[in-house]
Amino acid sequence: MTGSIEGLERFDSPGKGRSLRVTRPFKLGELLFSCPAYSYVLSYEERGCYCESCFTRKNGLAKCGKCHKAFYCNVKCQKGDWAMHKLECSAMTAFGENWCPSETVRLVARILAKKKMQKERCLSEKILQIGEMQSHIEDVDNEKREMNEADVARLHRFYSKHLDFPDHKDLLTLFSQVACNGFTIEDDELSHLGTAVYPDVALINHSCLPSVIVTFKGTSAEIRAVKNMKPGDEVLISYIDLLYPTDDRNNRLRESYYFTCDCQECKSKSRDKTKLKVRKQRDPIEPEIISNMVRYARKAIREFRASKHIKPPSELLEMCEQSLEEMGAVFDDSNVYMLHMMYQAMGVCLYMEDPEGAIRYGEKILKPYKQLYPPYSLNVSSMYLKLGRLYMGWEKHSMGISALKKAMAIMEVAHGKDHYYVTELRNEMTQK
C-alpha cells in the first residue's frame, strides 16, 4: 500500500519489525493517508441508527424487508451490503433469541466470505497483507484460548450455510489476528459503533508518545499527524488508553498485544506521580497504604467491568460511588483510578437520564483529563462534547458553546476540518 502513497515508506525497525515512517514533512493535523476497511461489521446496539453499509448516522433509514433487523440509507447501500448481510439475514430469523455470535465472530465470518468472493489463493495473502498482520496464537493464555474455541464453535453453528471453513488451526490463527489487529470504530463521543480490520493501518507500531491518531470517516480509517513530523520520523499510534500509569499501560499491552513499550515516557515514568496523586494530609501517607489502595482500585475496576452487562444501572452507580468513597480516603480527585470510576459513573448517569449527575462527574473529570492526556486527545474532545451538549440541554448556552468550541478545536486536528462530525458540530452550534 505505501508504495502508492506519497510521503510514506516501510522499513524494518529494530526490535519491532515492519514499520512505517514519513519521507517528507507533515504538519499538525495533516492527513498521512486514508484507507477503506478490508472488512467491518456494525454493532448490534447501533442498528437502526446507522447504515449497515456506510455507517452514515441519520434518521429514516430503510429496514431490510426480509429480516427487518438491518437498516440502510437507500437501495444502493442495501445492494452493496447484501454479500455480507446475507450471512446473517435468514439465520437471525431462524435462530431468533438463540442468535448470539460475538462481534468478532461476525467480523471473521465476513472476512471468510470476502476471501471466498475474491477467490484468493490462500487465507493470508490479502487479508493479512502477505503476513503483515500479527498473530500471537502461540502466546494466548488458557482463558483467551477457550474464548477463541467458543468463537470457532459459534462460527460453525451460525454461518455454516454460507461459508466454507479452513481447518481448525487456521481459524484459531485468524481469530488471534483479528484480536490483535482489529479496530473499534467509534463516533464523536467515543461510543462503540463496530469493528473493522485495516491491514494497512496494522503496519503502524505503538508508542505512548504517538505521532499520529486514527479516526474514522464512515468505515474508512484516516491517519492524521498530531504533531509536526520531519522526514525519517516513525509513524506511531497508541494501541491503548494513555490515561493510566506506566505499569498499567504495559500490563494492558502484554495482555492484548504481547509486548511492552520502551518509549521515552515508559522509560522515564515521568508522569506516573501526577497520575497517582494522593490526597494532601498533615502526615505523609505510608507507601504500603498507597500500594494497597492501588490494588483495591484495580480490583474495583475489574469487578465493575464484569458487572457492567449484568447488574442494573442503580447498582452500577452504587458500585462507583462506594469505590470512589473508599479510594478518596487516599487518592486525590485527579488520580487516574478516581477518574476512571467517575467516568463510569457519568456514563451510568447518562444512561439513567440524570443530566445533573452526569454534569457533576464530567466537571470533575475534565480538568485532570486536559493535564493527563496528550494534546488533541479524543478522550478530551469527547468530554467537551458531552458536557457541552448537557449544558445546552440545561439552557446553559454560554457554557455549552464554550465547551463545544473547545471540542471542535481538537476535532479539527484529529478528524480534519472537513469531517462530517466537525460539520455537524458547527451546524449544531450555529442553530443553538
SSE arrangement:
Blueprint: E1 8-13, E2 17-22, E3 31-35, E4 39-42, E5 62-63, E6 71-72, H1 75-85, H2 89-95, H3 103-118, H4 123-127, H5 142-159, H6 168-181, E7 182-186, E8 192-197, E9 205-206, E10 212-217, E11 220-225, E12 236-237, H7 246-257, H8 264-268, H9 272-275, H10 287-307, H11 313-328, H12 336-351, H13 355-372, H14 378-393, H15 397-414, H16 420-431
GO molecular function: histone H3K4 trimethyltransferase activity; zinc ion binding
Domain SET: 6-240
Protein name: [histone H3]-lysine(4) N-trimethyltransferase
What features would you describe in this structure?
This protein has helices at residues 75-85, 89-95, 103-118, 123-127, 142-159, 168-181, 246-257, 264-268, 272-275, 287-307, 313-328, 336-351, 355-372, 378-393, 397-414, 420-431; strands spanning 8-13, 17-22, 31-35, 39-42, 62-63, 71-72, 182-186, 192-197, 205-206, 212-217, 220-225, 236-237. The chain has 432 residues and is an alpha+beta fold. It folds into 2 domains: 39-184, Orthogonal Bundle (Annexin V, domain 1); 258-431, Serine Threonine Protein Phosphatase 5, Tetratricopeptide repeat. The strands form 5 sheets. The protein has a 3-stranded antiparallel beta sheet, with no helix packed on it. Strands 4-8-7 form a 3-stranded antiparallel beta sheet.
Query: How many strand segments?
Result: 12
Based on secondary structure, the structural category is alpha+beta
Total discrete domains: 2
- In percent, how helical is the residue content? 40-55%
Rounded Rg? 23 Å
Principal-axes geometry comes out as globular
Order of helices and strands: EEEEEEHHHHHHEEEEEEHHHHHHHHHH
Poorly predicted parts = 121-132
Q: Give a quick account of the main beta sheet: strands, pairing sense, barrel closure.
A: 3 strands, antiparallel
GO molecular function, one term: zinc ion binding
Pfam families: SET, zf-MYND
Domain MYND-type: 51-89
Catalytic activity: L-lysyl(4)-[histone H3] + 3 S-adenosyl-L-methionine = N(6),N(6),N(6)-trimethyl-L-lysyl(4)-[histone H3] + 3 S-adenosyl-L-homocysteine + 3 H(+)
